[in-house]
Amino acid sequence: MFIKRHSYGVDCPRASEITPRELFESRRTFLKQLAVGSIAGGALADMATREAFAQTTGAQKLAATANPAYVIMDKVTSFKDATTYNNFYEFGTDKTEPSRNADALKTRPWTIAIEGEVKRPMTLDIDSLLKLAPLEERVYRLRCVEGWSMVIPWIGYSLSELIRKVEPNGNAKYVEFVTLADKKQMPGLRSPVLEWPYVEGLRLDEANHRLTLLTLGMYGEVLPNQNGAPVRIVVPWKYGFKSPKSIVKIRFVREQPRTAWNIAAPQEYGFYSNVNPEVDHPRWSQATERRIGEDGFFTRKRKTLMFNGYSEVASLYAGMDLKKFF
Ligand code: MTE
Fold this sequence. Notes:
This protein is of the alpha+beta class. The chain has a single domain (63-317), classed as Sulfite Oxidase, Chain A, domain 2 (Alpha-Beta Complex), CATH 3.90.420.10. It is built from 8 helices and 13 strands. It has helices spanning 21-36, 42-54, 79-84, 97-101, 126-131, 159-166, 204-208, 260-264, and strands at 65-66, 111-116, 122-125, 136-143, 148-158, 174-179, 199-203, 213-218, 221-222, 232-234, 247-253, 288-291, 302-303. The strands form 2 sheets. Strands 1, 4, 5, 8, 9, 10, 12 and 13 form an 8-stranded mixed beta sheet that branches. Strands 3-2-11-6-7 form a 5-stranded mixed beta sheet. Helix 1 packs antiparallel against helix 2. The radius of gyration is 19 Å and the shape is globular. It starts with 20 loop residues before the first helix and ends in a 23-residue tail after the last strand. The structure holds ligand MTE. Ligand MTE is lined by residues 86-90, 142, 144, 179, 198, 227-228, 240-241, 243-246.
Protein backbone atom coordinates (compact mmCIF):
# COMPACT_ATOMS: atom_id res chain seq x y z
CA MET A 1 0.00 0.00 0.00
CA PHE A 2 1.24 3.46 -0.86
CA ILE A 3 2.54 5.66 1.93
CA LYS A 4 3.46 9.26 1.27
CA ARG A 5 7.16 10.07 1.29
CA HIS A 6 8.26 13.65 1.61
CA SER A 7 10.69 15.17 -0.83
CA TYR A 8 11.69 18.41 0.81
CA GLY A 9 14.84 20.24 -0.22
CA VAL A 10 18.03 19.16 1.49
CA ASP A 11 17.88 22.06 3.94
CA CYS A 12 14.27 21.50 4.97
CA PRO A 13 13.70 21.05 7.78
CA ARG A 14 16.88 22.34 9.32
CA ALA A 15 19.21 19.75 10.75
CA SER A 16 18.34 20.80 14.30
CA GLU A 17 14.76 19.68 13.74
CA ILE A 18 15.70 16.17 12.78
CA THR A 19 15.33 13.79 15.68
CA PRO A 20 18.64 12.15 16.38
CA ARG A 21 18.40 8.48 17.31
CA GLU A 22 19.61 9.24 20.85
CA LEU A 23 16.61 11.49 21.33
CA PHE A 24 14.23 8.72 20.40
CA GLU A 25 16.07 6.49 22.82
CA SER A 26 15.87 9.00 25.63
CA ARG A 27 12.18 9.48 24.97
CA ARG A 28 11.69 5.74 25.26
CA THR A 29 13.65 5.69 28.49
CA PHE A 30 11.51 8.55 29.72
CA LEU A 31 8.31 6.71 28.85
CA LYS A 32 9.68 3.60 30.47
CA GLN A 33 10.43 5.48 33.67
CA LEU A 34 6.94 6.83 33.55
CA ALA A 35 5.63 3.30 33.19
CA VAL A 36 7.61 2.02 36.14
CA GLY A 37 6.51 5.04 38.13
CA SER A 38 3.11 6.45 38.84
CA ILE A 39 1.03 5.63 35.77
CA ALA A 40 -0.51 2.19 36.01
CA GLY A 41 -0.43 0.47 32.65
CA GLY A 42 2.01 3.04 31.30
CA ALA A 43 4.18 0.19 30.10
CA LEU A 44 1.50 -0.57 27.56
CA ALA A 45 1.69 2.94 26.19
CA ASP A 46 5.46 2.63 26.03
CA MET A 47 5.32 -0.59 24.03
CA ALA A 48 2.61 0.70 21.78
CA THR A 49 4.47 3.92 21.10
CA ARG A 50 7.61 2.00 20.22
CA GLU A 51 5.68 -0.26 17.92
CA ALA A 52 4.06 2.69 16.18
CA PHE A 53 7.36 4.52 15.78
CA ALA A 54 8.94 1.49 14.23
CA GLN A 55 6.43 1.70 11.40
CA THR A 56 7.07 5.24 10.18
CA THR A 57 8.10 5.94 6.61
CA GLY A 58 11.49 7.48 7.06
CA ALA A 59 10.17 10.90 6.05
CA GLN A 60 11.66 14.07 7.57
CA LYS A 61 12.03 13.64 11.32
CA LEU A 62 10.69 16.25 13.69
CA ALA A 63 12.22 16.45 17.14
CA ALA A 64 9.75 17.00 19.97
CA THR A 65 9.66 16.53 23.71
CA ALA A 66 7.05 14.10 24.97
CA ASN A 67 4.60 15.99 27.15
CA PRO A 68 3.90 13.72 30.15
CA ALA A 69 0.45 15.28 30.59
CA TYR A 70 -0.61 13.58 27.35
CA VAL A 71 0.93 10.15 27.59
CA ILE A 72 -2.13 7.90 27.67
CA MET A 73 -2.59 4.22 28.34
CA ASP A 74 -4.41 3.35 25.14
CA LYS A 75 -2.45 1.52 22.48
CA VAL A 76 -1.21 3.93 19.83
CA THR A 77 -2.82 3.36 16.42
CA SER A 78 -0.40 1.97 13.87
CA PHE A 79 1.22 4.50 11.56
CA LYS A 80 -0.15 2.56 8.62
CA ASP A 81 -3.77 2.82 9.80
CA ALA A 82 -3.39 6.49 10.71
CA THR A 83 -2.06 7.31 7.25
CA THR A 84 -4.23 5.15 5.02
CA TYR A 85 -7.66 5.52 6.64
CA ASN A 86 -8.30 9.24 6.31
CA ASN A 87 -10.91 11.89 5.82
CA PHE A 88 -9.60 14.62 3.55
CA TYR A 89 -12.34 15.23 1.02
CA GLU A 90 -10.17 17.52 -1.11
CA PHE A 91 -8.45 14.29 -2.15
CA GLY A 92 -11.56 12.11 -2.43
CA THR A 93 -14.31 10.83 -0.17
CA ASP A 94 -13.12 7.24 0.10
CA LYS A 95 -10.95 6.56 3.17
CA THR A 96 -8.07 5.28 1.02
CA GLU A 97 -8.09 8.14 -1.49
CA PRO A 98 -6.17 10.79 0.52
CA SER A 99 -3.14 8.47 0.87
CA ARG A 100 -3.29 7.72 -2.85
CA ASN A 101 -4.01 11.25 -4.13
CA ALA A 102 -2.28 13.63 -1.72
CA ASP A 103 1.22 12.83 -2.94
CA ALA A 104 1.16 15.79 -5.35
CA LEU A 105 0.33 18.37 -2.67
CA LYS A 106 3.18 20.88 -2.55
CA THR A 107 3.71 21.74 1.11
CA ARG A 108 6.71 24.07 0.67
CA PRO A 109 6.80 26.97 0.29
CA TRP A 110 3.66 27.44 2.40
CA THR A 111 2.42 30.45 4.25
CA ILE A 112 -0.35 30.96 6.73
CA ALA A 113 -1.96 34.39 7.05
CA ILE A 114 -3.24 35.47 10.45
CA GLU A 115 -5.62 38.38 10.20
CA GLY A 116 -8.87 40.00 11.31
CA GLU A 117 -9.46 41.33 14.81
CA VAL A 118 -5.82 41.28 15.94
CA LYS A 119 -3.33 43.99 16.83
CA ARG A 120 -0.46 42.29 14.99
CA PRO A 121 -1.63 40.57 11.80
CA MET A 122 1.12 38.50 10.24
CA THR A 123 1.97 35.99 7.56
CA LEU A 124 4.20 33.13 8.66
CA ASP A 125 5.97 30.44 6.68
CA ILE A 126 6.37 26.91 7.93
CA ASP A 127 9.90 27.43 9.23
CA SER A 128 8.69 30.36 11.34
CA LEU A 129 5.83 28.24 12.66
CA LEU A 130 8.25 25.44 13.53
CA LYS A 131 10.32 27.91 15.55
CA LEU A 132 7.47 29.78 17.23
CA ALA A 133 7.33 27.56 20.33
CA PRO A 134 8.99 24.34 21.56
CA LEU A 135 7.56 21.29 19.80
CA GLU A 136 5.80 18.80 22.04
CA GLU A 137 4.66 15.29 21.38
CA ARG A 138 1.15 14.69 22.68
CA VAL A 139 -0.71 11.41 22.36
CA TYR A 140 -4.36 12.28 21.78
CA ARG A 141 -7.47 10.24 21.09
CA LEU A 142 -9.20 11.35 17.87
CA ARG A 143 -12.92 10.49 17.69
CA CYS A 144 -14.58 10.82 14.30
CA VAL A 145 -18.26 11.67 14.09
CA GLU A 146 -18.70 8.54 11.95
CA GLY A 147 -18.15 6.33 15.01
CA TRP A 148 -14.47 5.35 14.86
CA SER A 149 -11.45 6.52 16.81
CA MET A 150 -7.66 6.43 16.74
CA VAL A 151 -4.82 7.27 19.15
CA ILE A 152 -2.13 9.39 17.57
CA PRO A 153 1.19 10.88 18.78
CA TRP A 154 0.90 14.39 17.33
CA ILE A 155 3.67 16.98 17.30
CA GLY A 156 3.03 20.68 17.76
CA TYR A 157 2.29 23.23 20.45
CA SER A 158 -0.78 24.91 21.90
CA LEU A 159 -2.45 27.21 19.40
CA SER A 160 -2.55 29.74 22.25
CA GLU A 161 1.20 30.36 21.64
CA LEU A 162 0.38 31.74 18.21
CA ILE A 163 -2.71 33.60 19.44
CA ARG A 164 -0.56 35.36 22.03
CA LYS A 165 1.80 36.61 19.32
CA VAL A 166 -0.92 38.23 17.18
CA GLU A 167 -2.75 39.81 20.13
CA PRO A 168 -6.48 39.54 19.45
CA ASN A 169 -8.34 42.80 20.11
CA GLY A 170 -11.55 43.13 22.15
CA ASN A 171 -13.74 42.37 19.13
CA ALA A 172 -12.26 38.91 18.54
CA LYS A 173 -14.80 36.33 19.74
CA TYR A 174 -14.21 33.45 17.33
CA VAL A 175 -11.40 32.01 15.24
CA GLU A 176 -11.99 30.86 11.67
CA PHE A 177 -9.66 28.43 9.90
CA VAL A 178 -9.51 28.47 6.12
CA THR A 179 -7.80 25.56 4.37
CA LEU A 180 -6.20 25.22 0.94
CA ALA A 181 -8.55 24.83 -2.04
CA ASP A 182 -6.43 24.36 -5.14
CA LYS A 183 -8.09 22.56 -8.03
CA LYS A 184 -4.73 21.85 -9.64
CA GLN A 185 -3.57 19.83 -6.65
CA MET A 186 -6.80 18.57 -5.14
CA PRO A 187 -8.92 16.32 -7.35
CA GLY A 188 -11.72 16.17 -4.76
CA LEU A 189 -12.61 19.81 -5.41
CA ARG A 190 -14.30 18.73 -8.64
CA SER A 191 -17.05 17.25 -6.49
CA PRO A 192 -19.53 19.59 -4.79
CA VAL A 193 -19.76 17.28 -1.77
CA LEU A 194 -18.72 20.24 0.46
CA GLU A 195 -18.48 23.97 -0.15
CA TRP A 196 -14.80 24.76 -0.79
CA PRO A 197 -12.57 25.81 0.81
CA TYR A 198 -13.14 23.62 3.86
CA VAL A 199 -13.59 26.07 6.73
CA GLU A 200 -13.83 25.46 10.46
CA GLY A 201 -14.16 27.58 13.55
CA LEU A 202 -13.78 27.70 17.32
CA ARG A 203 -14.81 30.11 20.03
CA LEU A 204 -11.78 32.16 21.11
CA ASP A 205 -11.65 30.47 24.53
CA GLU A 206 -11.76 27.03 22.88
CA ALA A 207 -8.95 28.05 20.53
CA ASN A 208 -6.96 29.30 23.52
CA HIS A 209 -7.43 26.11 25.54
CA ARG A 210 -4.09 24.39 26.11
CA LEU A 211 -5.36 21.14 24.54
CA THR A 212 -5.97 22.80 21.15
CA LEU A 213 -2.88 21.83 19.21
CA LEU A 214 -1.30 23.63 16.28
CA THR A 215 -0.02 20.48 14.65
CA LEU A 216 3.04 20.13 12.43
CA GLY A 217 3.91 16.45 12.73
CA MET A 218 3.01 12.99 13.98
CA TYR A 219 4.88 9.77 14.87
CA GLY A 220 8.17 11.67 15.09
CA GLU A 221 7.91 13.01 11.54
CA VAL A 222 6.48 15.98 9.67
CA LEU A 223 2.78 15.54 8.88
CA PRO A 224 2.12 13.23 5.96
CA ASN A 225 0.13 15.07 3.27
CA GLN A 226 -2.98 12.95 3.79
CA ASN A 227 -3.02 13.96 7.47
CA GLY A 228 -3.06 17.68 6.72
CA ALA A 229 0.48 18.78 5.88
CA PRO A 230 2.08 21.08 6.52
CA VAL A 231 -0.10 22.46 9.32
CA ARG A 232 -3.44 21.49 10.84
CA ILE A 233 -5.33 21.94 14.07
CA VAL A 234 -6.24 19.08 16.41
CA VAL A 235 -9.01 19.64 18.97
CA PRO A 236 -9.18 16.33 20.84
CA TRP A 237 -12.47 16.85 22.72
CA LYS A 238 -14.40 17.54 19.50
CA TYR A 239 -15.33 15.29 16.60
CA GLY A 240 -12.51 14.96 14.07
CA PHE A 241 -14.06 17.26 11.49
CA LYS A 242 -13.37 20.21 13.83
CA SER A 243 -9.65 19.59 13.14
CA PRO A 244 -9.01 21.36 9.80
CA LYS A 245 -6.13 20.21 7.60
CA SER A 246 -3.67 22.13 5.40
CA ILE A 247 -4.54 25.56 6.78
CA VAL A 248 -3.68 28.73 4.83
CA LYS A 249 -5.50 31.38 6.86
CA ILE A 250 -6.55 31.99 10.47
CA ARG A 251 -9.03 34.84 10.94
CA PHE A 252 -10.12 36.35 14.24
CA VAL A 253 -13.73 37.42 13.88
CA ARG A 254 -16.68 38.91 15.81
CA GLU A 255 -19.39 36.50 14.70
CA GLN A 256 -19.59 32.72 14.81
CA PRO A 257 -18.04 31.59 11.52
CA ARG A 258 -19.69 29.27 9.01
CA THR A 259 -18.18 25.79 9.00
CA ALA A 260 -17.94 23.27 6.14
CA TRP A 261 -20.03 20.47 7.65
CA ASN A 262 -22.58 22.82 9.17
CA ILE A 263 -23.12 24.39 5.75
CA ALA A 264 -23.51 20.92 4.18
CA ALA A 265 -25.93 19.49 6.79
CA PRO A 266 -26.88 21.93 9.57
CA GLN A 267 -29.26 19.45 11.25
CA GLU A 268 -26.47 16.92 11.62
CA TYR A 269 -23.32 18.94 12.37
CA GLY A 270 -23.47 21.79 14.84
CA PHE A 271 -20.86 24.46 15.47
CA TYR A 272 -19.69 22.98 18.76
CA SER A 273 -19.56 19.27 17.88
CA ASN A 274 -18.13 18.27 21.23
CA VAL A 275 -17.81 14.51 21.58
CA ASN A 276 -20.91 13.63 23.58
CA PRO A 277 -22.22 10.06 23.99
CA GLU A 278 -25.57 11.45 25.13
CA VAL A 279 -26.31 13.41 21.99
CA ASP A 280 -26.91 11.09 19.07
CA HIS A 281 -26.29 12.00 15.48
CA PRO A 282 -29.76 12.14 13.84
CA ARG A 283 -28.92 8.97 11.92
CA TRP A 284 -26.90 6.96 14.46
CA SER A 285 -25.95 6.65 18.12
CA GLN A 286 -22.76 8.26 19.41
CA ALA A 287 -22.66 6.12 22.58
CA THR A 288 -19.93 3.75 21.36
CA GLU A 289 -17.03 3.74 18.96
CA ARG A 290 -14.84 1.36 17.01
CA ARG A 291 -11.12 1.79 17.64
CA ILE A 292 -9.31 1.45 14.31
CA GLY A 293 -6.97 -1.53 14.48
CA GLU A 294 -9.18 -3.43 16.95
CA ASP A 295 -11.45 -4.94 14.36
CA GLY A 296 -11.61 -8.56 15.53
CA PHE A 297 -14.93 -10.30 14.95
CA PHE A 298 -15.58 -10.54 18.67
CA THR A 299 -14.15 -7.15 19.58
CA ARG A 300 -16.57 -5.11 21.60
CA LYS A 301 -17.07 -1.49 20.70
CA ARG A 302 -15.70 0.99 23.21
CA LYS A 303 -17.89 3.32 25.19
CA THR A 304 -17.51 6.89 23.98
CA LEU A 305 -16.49 9.26 26.76
CA MET A 306 -17.90 12.74 27.36
CA PHE A 307 -15.57 15.27 25.71
CA ASN A 308 -13.68 12.22 24.40
CA GLY A 309 -12.32 11.79 27.93
CA TYR A 310 -10.92 15.33 28.16
CA SER A 311 -13.13 16.37 31.06
CA GLU A 312 -10.95 19.40 31.86
CA VAL A 313 -12.75 21.31 29.08
CA ALA A 314 -16.17 21.01 30.79
CA SER A 315 -15.83 24.45 32.37
CA LEU A 316 -15.80 26.02 28.87
CA TYR A 317 -19.44 24.99 28.55
CA ALA A 318 -20.72 25.67 32.07
CA GLY A 319 -24.42 26.53 31.97
CA MET A 320 -24.83 25.64 28.29
CA ASP A 321 -27.41 23.16 27.05
CA LEU A 322 -25.17 20.82 25.06
CA LYS A 323 -28.17 19.20 23.35
CA LYS A 324 -29.13 22.55 21.91
CA PHE A 325 -25.57 23.65 21.21
CA PHE A 326 -24.51 20.32 19.71
N1 MTE B 1 -9.74 19.03 6.83
C1 MTE B 1 -9.92 19.27 5.51
N2 MTE B 1 -9.32 20.34 4.94
N3 MTE B 1 -10.72 18.49 4.73
C2 MTE B 1 -11.37 17.40 5.26
O1 MTE B 1 -12.11 16.71 4.52
N4 MTE B 1 -11.82 16.05 7.28
C3 MTE B 1 -12.00 16.13 8.73
C4 MTE B 1 -10.72 16.60 9.44
N5 MTE B 1 -10.10 17.70 8.73
C5 MTE B 1 -11.20 17.11 6.64
C6 MTE B 1 -10.33 17.96 7.40
C7 MTE B 1 -12.47 14.89 9.31
S1 MTE B 1 -14.09 14.45 8.96
C8 MTE B 1 -11.71 14.11 10.14
S2 MTE B 1 -12.37 12.79 10.97
C9 MTE B 1 -10.28 14.40 10.34
O2 MTE B 1 -9.81 15.50 9.53
C10 MTE B 1 -9.47 13.17 9.99
O3 MTE B 1 -8.11 13.35 10.25
P1 MTE B 1 -7.09 12.15 9.93
O4 MTE B 1 -7.34 11.71 8.51
O5 MTE B 1 -5.73 12.73 10.12
O6 MTE B 1 -7.41 11.05 10.90
